[in-house]
Design brief:
Length: 299
């Protein structure tokens, strides 16, 4: 297939490119910079200049492809609600170019939307539109396209990691570095699902190849790693103390991260693994955190 990949030079996208190419697919990779054009050309992909703000560029890129994988997202969490709305518009633009065909569109969401109640393990057969995360609009946009006949599926991400980046944990590391303490909320028993980036890239490829309309996949290798275990590894890496934060102190200490810090985001991938024959083999989140270089800023 010729696949249009948004976010092609990002953390996950840059792992998806070689995964697709090695499987015999061709890649049109969207980038917003000349540096990105050079990187994609060197990787063997066809660069395409575009961005999330320019929805016409998204439609043009999707129109020339056999399928689309959408991983681009503006990760400025200080403007999270607006950026989620931007993603909703982007999904709509990508889908508009695929209407009237069976060409697949794989969009990106988070595992939390598969959680039916607080503390419950998130599952692929659940979509909780009341989950307290503004990115719900991404899955709602996908559902709208599905009702309009677009072959859309959803990839729900946990904390995707290697020894350089680890999803939201990256921001926790930055916070611990700036405040001089690695913190968790309460007893730190809330858990976050995780998945190694190379395994996640392979799952995106499998989802695009399967092209099952309406499917929800969860890129989960570990169902849950406790917040306290994460904080303790980070504390050792940064050589700072580890401390519990009360629920009343969450907003003051964590800022925007308080939306996530005390929440359980554990998730299952039993159905995903069975459906796609996906068996993650990469290192665990704590192993990558233990091996990372804490002498340099992570973001």
């Amino acid at each position: 297939m010729l696949i249009f990949l948004t976010g092609a030079t990002g953390f996950i996208g840059s792992a998806i490119v070689p995964e697709l190419l090695s499987a015999g697919h061709r890649v049109i990779g969207m980038t917003r910079s000349e540096a990105g054009v050079r990187a994609l050309t060197e990787a063997g992909a066809e660069p395409f200049l575009g961005n999330l703000e320019d929805v016409d560029s998204l439609s043009r890129g999707a129109a020339q492809a056999d399928g689309v994988i959408h991983t681009a997202f503006d990760h400025d969490f200080s403007n999270f609600v607006a950026n989620c709305e931007k993603d909703r518009r982007a999904i709509g633009a990508l889908g508009s170019a695929l209407k009237g065909s069976d060409r697949p569109l794989v969009i990106t969401s988070g595992v939390g939307f598969g959680c039916s109640a607080p503390g419950q393990l998130a599952r692929e057969d659940v979509f909780n539109a009341e989950y307290p995360n503004p990115r719900v609009v991404s899955e709602l946009a996908g559902a709208k396209l599905l009702n309009e006949g677009v072959n859309v599926s959803v990839m729900r991400l946990p904390q995707v990691h290697d020894t350089v980046k680890q999803g939201l944990v990256t921001y926790l590391i930055d916070l611990a570095r700036s405040k001089g303490v690695s913190a968790y909320v309460g007893e730190g028993a809330n858990r976050w699902a995780a998945g190694p980036v190379l395994d996640v890239a392979r799952l995106y490829r499998l989802a695009a190849e399967k092209a099952e309309a309406g499917a929800r996949y969860q890129a989960v290798a570990e169902e849950g790693v406790s917040a306290r275990d994460i904080a303790e590894v980070v504390g050792r890496g940064l050589k700072v103390p580890v401390s519990a934060i009360s629920s009343e102190e969450v907003a003051g200490h964590f800022g925007w991260l308080g939306l996530f810090a005390g929440h359980d985001m554990s998730a299952s991938s039993v159905w995903t693994q069975a459906q796609l024959g996906w068996h993650p083999t990469g290192p665990g989140l704590l192993a990558d955190l233990e091996r990372m270089d804490y002498s340099r800023a992570s973001s």
